[in-house]
Design a protein that fits this description.
CATH topology of the largest domain: Rossmann fold
CATH architecture of the largest domain: 3-Layer(aba) Sandwich
Shape: elongated
Number of domains: 3
Largest sheet: 10 strands, mixed
Radius of gyration: 25 Å
Oligomer: single chain
C-alpha cells in the first residue's frame, strides 16, 4: 500500500529525480514513478536529508517531465517473490519473469539487499565440489561455501567455461544441488547461448537464470546479482539445497556502479571507481558460505573480464582481496588452442587444502597437486632458458621437463567443452604425466607415493 504520493519533481538529472524533503521516507525505499502517459517505472531512494530526496529510476528517465511526473513511495525495500517453483525459471535482472510462465506465486517475499553471513555463524568450508574440469578439480579445487572468481579477458572463452561449470558441477553425495546463473550486462547473443546450452544439458530442473542485457538500463545491473543471491539464499537456507552461484560479468556491474557514482556527483577514487567499491563487492561476495548447523550452502563463482588484461586493475585487485583465490585465464594458452585456457601459476584456491585428500577426493590428491605445480613451474623456467641458449644446450632432464610441459598443456589442461572428467580420471592422468619425468625431479612426493603411483625410471 502506498504511504505517500507527490506530484511534480524539482529536477531530473540522468537516472535521478530530485524532490524536496519528503517526511517519513527511508533510504533504499522503493517508489513508483508515474508519467503522464500512464506508464509506471520503478525507482529507489538513494539519498535522504533535511532538504531533499533523491530517487534513482531503474528504467531511466527518458520522456519524463518534472512538472507532470509523480512519485509514489511504497514504504518497502526492493523485494523478490520466492517459492520452490523458481527452479527451472528465467527472470530479468529485476526478477521479472522472462520465460512467459507468469509470476511466482504462493511463496515468500524477501528484500534483495541481504547482508553478509556473520563470521560467528559460519561453518568452515570443507566439501569438494566437482566441476569435471581437470585443471580446476586437481589444482584449484572448488570447496562448498567458497567464493572462487574467474579472471578472464575480452575475447576469452569465459562464457563457454561458465556454461560448462554450470552443467557439470556436482557435490559428491548430495542430490539437492542447484545452480543460480546471473548474466550481468550481457549481449543478446550471449543470453541466447546461455539459455540454449543450459536447457540442452537438461539443467532446467535445478537452475534459476537471471539475465540483464547490455541494452537494459544501467541501474538494473546493480540489482541483478542481489536478486540472484537472494534466490540462492532462499534455496540454500530455507529449502536446504547446496547452491552454486555463477555471476558474469562482474566488470559490467562495477562499471555500472562507476557510472551511477559519477551521475550522483561523488568524488571518484582509483580509475574513476567509487571509493566504496571494495565494501560494495564485499557485500555481494560475503553472502557465500555454510551456516553452522544449517542444511544448505551458497558457493560463488564470480566471473570478470580484466580491462586490458591488467590483473592489478581495481576490479580484479579488490576481488582478489575479498575472495579465496582466483582462476586466471591465459590469452597465450587460448591462442595455442588450449581449452579451458587456465593459467595455473598465478591461479590458486586458498581453501583446497582443507577439502581434498582422504575422505574428500583421494588420499594422493595433495601430493599430486603439489608436484604438478612444481613441475609446471620448472617448465616455465626452462622455456625462458631455452629462449636464450637454445634447446640443444639443455640437459636431458630439462628436455624431459619441456616435453612434460607440452603434454601437460595439451592433455591435462586442455579438454573438450563437452568433456566431463571425474576426479579419479583427472588424478590418474596427472600421475601418468608425472611418470614421464626422471624420479629425481619429483621432489614434492614421498618415496611411498613414487613407488605406488609412478613407474620406476632410471636416474
Amino acid at each position: 500500500m502506498a504511504i505517500a504520493e507527490y506530484m511534480g519533481v524539482e529536477k531530473i538529472n540522468g537516472p535521478f529525480l530530485l524532490l524536496s524533503a519528503v517526511p517519513g521516507i527511508g533510504y533504499d525505499e522503493i517508489a513508483d514513478i508515474l508519467s503522464p502517459d500512464g506508464t509506471v517505472r520503478k525507482g529507489r531512494v538513494v539519498l535522504v536529508d533535511q532538504n531533499s530526496t533523491l530517487v534513482q529510476v531503474f528504467s531511466g528517465t527518458e520522456g519524463l517531465v518534472p512538472s507532470s511526473t509523480s512519485v509514489r513511495f511504497l514504504g518497502r525495500e526492493l523485494e523478490i517473490p520466492l517459492s520452490p517453483s523458481i527452479l527451472g525459471r528465467t527472470f530479468s535482472g529485476l526478477g521479472e519473469p522472462r520465460d512467459g510462465c507468469g509470476p511466482v506465486l504462493g511463496g515468500a517475499r524477501r528484500p534483495v539487499n541481504g547482508s553478509a553471513i556473520n563470521p560467528l555463524a559460519r561453518e568452515y568450508p570443507r566439501d569438494f565440489i566437482s566441476t569435471g574440469i581437470s585443471s580446476v578439480d586437481v589444482l584449484l579445487t572448488l570447496i562448498r561455501g567458497q567464493k572462487l572468481p574467474i579472471f578472464s579477458g575480452n575475447g576469452l572463452p569465459h562464457n563457454q567455461l561458465a556454461v560448462q561449470i554450470a552443467t557439470q558441477s556436482k557435490l559428491v553425495g548430495a542430490e539437492n544441488f542447484a545452480v543460480v546463473f546471473a548474466g550481468i550486462g550481457i549481449k543478446h547473443d550471449d543470453a541466447a547461448y546461455f539459455q540454449n546450452r543450459l536447457s540442452a544439458h537438461g539443467q532446467g530442473g535445478n537452475l534459476v537464470l537471471f539475465l540483464n542485457m547490455a541494452d537494459d538500463p544501467v541501474i538494473e545491473r546493480i540489482a541483478t546479482p542481489r536478486f540472484a543471491l537472494t534466490a540462492a539464499e532462499y534455496l540454500a537456507f530455507d529449502l536446504g539445497m547446496h547452491v552454486l552461484v555463477i555471476m558474469t560479468d562482474m566488470t559490467s556491474y562495477c562499471e555500472a556502479l562507476r557510472e551511477l557514482s559519477v551521475a550522483r556527483g561523488e568524488v571518484p577514487s582509483r580509475k574513476g571507481y567509487p571509493s566504496y567499491l571494495y565494501s560494495d563487492l564485499a557485500s555481494l561476495y560475503e553472502r557465500a558460505g555454510v551456516l553452522r548447523n544449517g542444511r544448505g550452502s551458497v558457493t560463488q563463482i564470480p566471473i570478470l573480464t580484466m580491462p586490458n588484461d591488467d590483473i592489478t586493475h581495481p576490479i580484479p585487485d579488490l576481488t582478489g582481496f575479498i575472495t579465496e583465490g582466483q582462476v586466471v585465464l591465459s590469452r597465450d594458452l587460448e591462442a595455442r588452442g588450449v581449452y579451458p585456457p587456465v593459467e595455473i601459476l598465478p591461479s590458486l584456491s586458498r581453501l583446497m587444502k582443507d577439502g581434498i585428500g582422504k575422505g574428500y577426493t583421494r588420499e594422493d590428491h595433495p601430493g599430486l597437486s603439489g608436484q604438478l605445480f612444481a613441475s609446471y613451474s620448472k617448465v616455465h623456467e626452462i622455456r625462458s632458458l631455452a629462449g636464450v641458449v637454445g634447446e640443444d644446450e639443455l640437459s636431458t632432464a630439462d628436455r624431459a621437463s619441456l616435453a612434460f610441459g607440452d603434454t601437460f598443456e595439451q592433455s591435462f589442461l586442455s579438454q573438450g567443452a563437452e568433456e566431463n572428467r571425474e576426479i579419479g580420471q583427472s588424478l590418474d592422468l596427472g600421475w601418468e604425466l608425472l611418470s614421464t619425468l626422471p624420479v629425481q625431479e619429483l621432489s614434492r612426493l614421498s618415496m611411498d607415493e613414487i613407488g605406488k603411483y609412478i613407474r620406476k625410471k632410471g636416474a
